[in-house]
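ok so for the tutorial part 2 we go from a plain amino acid sequence to predicted structure tokens. step 1 is just haveing the sequence, like this:
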Amino acid sequence: MLLGAVLVLLLLGGAGPASAHAALNSTDPGDGAVLQRAPGHVTLTFSESVGLRDDSFRVLDPGGHRVRTGVTGHAEGRSDTARVALPGGLGEGTYTVAWRVVSADSHPVSGAFTFSVGKPSQTTAPMDTGPTEDPLTATLHKLARYLAYLSAALLIGTAAFVALCRPPDPAPLRRPLVAGWWTLLAATVALL
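step 2 — the prediction. this is what the tokens look like for a chain of 192 residues:
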């Protein structure tokens, strides 16, 4: 039983690869770029694969009105990009692009940038891109992490007590040891 607990700790308790949210590497057109002609599309490149939604892009014209865009998709089949087609005939001025994607770890990532066609103009008030993380997802992730810490402490404490004190009848200690093991396993799976 003790050997099993130690093996579980070694397998599940070790440091795994860090998972970070997708980071925006570049935009085309670039943030703040002044273009002579209107671009045919907007492309974002990220540090990892991202998931897209129909409303992943919102493009506002210089007057603050939403521009009707094409279908959102990945550029050239690359899952680390997001692209949306722009209509032809965009007028002069500064356009605001607000974007929102889902990173590989299921967290939403959002931001905004501007580009200008012809001569830059005043832009409208900053656009709210929404919360950067879903509150329910964040709460469940924190709960699973704390359960993992608690069950690891219970598992290690019970195993240490059995190893150091060697009670004559270890049967009463089996229940907390097994409970700690299963809770740690469930919390680890939930965190993945």
